[in-house]
Amino acid sequence: MKKYIYLFLFFIFASQTNAHTSHYTGIKVINMEIFRNGELIGYSNYFFEHENNKLIVKNYTQFKVKLFGATIFSISSEAIEKYEDNKLIYFKSNTFQNDKEKYVNLNYNQSKNKFIIDGSSFKGEANTDSVVGNWWNHKILEADQQISPLSGSIKNQVVTFIGKENIELYGKNYSVDHYKLKSKNQDLPDDKKLDFDIWLNKKDSLILKVLYHRIGEWEYRVKNFE
Predict the structure, then answer these.
(1) Domains along the sequence of the chain with CATH
(2) According to the model, what pLDDT value does residue 20 have?
(3) What is the 3 state secondary structure string of 109-177?
(4) pLDDT by residue (tens digit) across 42-92?
(5) Which of 62, 65, 186, 210 is the Cys-Cys partner for 220 at CB 3.0 to 4.6 Å?
């Protein structure tokens, strides 16, 4: 069951060369709810700390999938990312997927101009135009490569603009841009492919909704932000 319910939690990073963190200067909190087949199962919340040229973003994500009253899949994750002068310099996450621990330690090496990754499934270097999944940052829609926030593995991706739409969330209407994010390599096993629909509110530079299918329909929805 784990193989097919594997959930990609994107802790979105901005690129090292142009992080666009200035777009989030006024943001303090983003609260997202996680749904599976229309049922609320958890949350993914972000907390922002601004100080001069520095930005710290903390994320706490938890959810449980139950079947006949028994928990068959769960995630409990904490992550922190740090920026200086609009550049990502540090990311760390610890995740418990069911009873299995996963982790990522990422640091920016200035002399190499590379990200150095120590992850539970990848150890090595990554280009600074890669992003690490995190739904607070719209740079995921401009990247060609993403780094798993769970384990540090690297995947190539293709993002396609679908069109402009109107959506309703929690009684509010939004004018948004709809994108499709997929794995560049379509020969990957189905449980490893990226296949997301993403709705971006350009006015606030916020991703408001994310949807994908894997043993059910999953949605991340922004409930509120300040």
Answers:
(1) 2-225 (2.50.20)
(2) 61
(3) ECCCCEEEEEECCCEEEEECCCEEEECCCHHHHCCCEEECCCCCCEEEEEEEEEEEEEEEECCEEEEEE
(4) 999 999 999 889 999 999 999 999 888 888 889 999 999 999 988 899 999
(5) 210
Distance, in Å, from the CA atom of 148 to the CA atom of 103, rounded to the nearest integer, reads 10
Cβ-in-10-Å burial (0-12, 13-18, 19+) of 129 comes to: middle
Strand partners, 13: none
How far from 165 is each of 138, 147, 170, 174, 197, CA to CA, in Å?
Answer: 17, 29, 17, 8, 13
Q: Look at phi and psi of residue 208 and say left if phi exceeds 0, alpha if psi is from -120 to 50, else beta.
A: alpha
Rounded distance, CA 32 to CA 29, Å? 10
CB 63 within 8 A of CB 34: yes
The answer to whether the Cα torsion of 39, 11, 221, 218 is positive or negative is negative
Q: How far apart are CA 148 and CA 107, in angstroms?
A: 15
What's the rounded Cα separation, in Å, for the pair 198 and 225? 18
Model-wide pTM > 0.70: yes
Q: 197 forms bridges with which residues in the sheet? A: 180, 211
Q: Which helix (H) or strand (E) holds 3?
A: helix 2-5
